[in-house]
Amino acid sequence: xxxxxxLTALDAPALAGxxxxxxxxxxxxxxxxxxxxxxxAPGERLPPAGEIARALDVxxxxxxxxxxxxxxxxxxxxxxGRAGGTLVSPRPAxxxxxxxxxxxxxxxxxxxxxxxxxxxxxxxxHLAASNATPAQLEELxxxxxxxxRAASWAEFHxxxxxxxxxxxxxxxxxxxxxQYGAVVRxxxxxxxxxxxxxxxxxxxxxxxxxxxxxxxxxxxxxxxTRRHVEVLHRTxxxxxxxxxxxxx
Length: 248
Ligand SMILES: [Zn+2]
Prior knowledge:
Layout: H1 16-19, H2 23-36, H3 49-56, H4 60-72, E1 76-79, E2 85-88, H5 100-104, H6 107-131, H7 134-149, H8 153-169, H9 174-188, H10 196-214, H11 218-230, H12 232-235, H13 237-240
Helix pairs in contact: 2-4, 3-4, 3-8, 6-9, 6-10, 6-11, 7-8, 7-10, 8-9, 10-11
Bound molecules: zinc ion.
């Protein structure tokens, strides 16, 4: 990568914060931070470990170990029986997971990644409105339907990632796909569980985007995309920190 590449910023030392965490610690931090911010509600059941593993891009064994340690620390609890599984504790312990600090201190990097994503994704939307093939549009539509049916934030996130990478592929420009993919994957390292109501709402924008692409309407496609990405400054954990109102 040349020093003039826009991706150089992603390798900046500032990112060392979460890079020094191992996979187990990133899972612990992301779930504990989501509980702290009220994104996961007390008593809420977590999705199966395999789904969490796919969504957070780590191994299933790592997820199982993270869940066990968070149970030991009182953030989560395990319940037996038909209503059983791993749940957020009714009164989750706070301040037990120091790895959270690496995420909190990465706020500037996250805001920068959101802006990089915004810049690239507006271009992606514009080009995909002229270049998406019928088969790609069909697949995008199918992913929107799957996100509507998704039973958990983990399942939703896996489809969401595929949706946006497919939109980048629909530009027909391999270079766009490569650069956009690099930014999005970096940003997703900071992805936290979300409440399902929020995700279902955001899926309406996916549907609007597919309609704009199908209608070959680049301006509408860019407008929807801008809304979809700009809001991340407020809805990702970096926008929620220090705002206890996020709990409602
Ligand atoms: Zn999305």
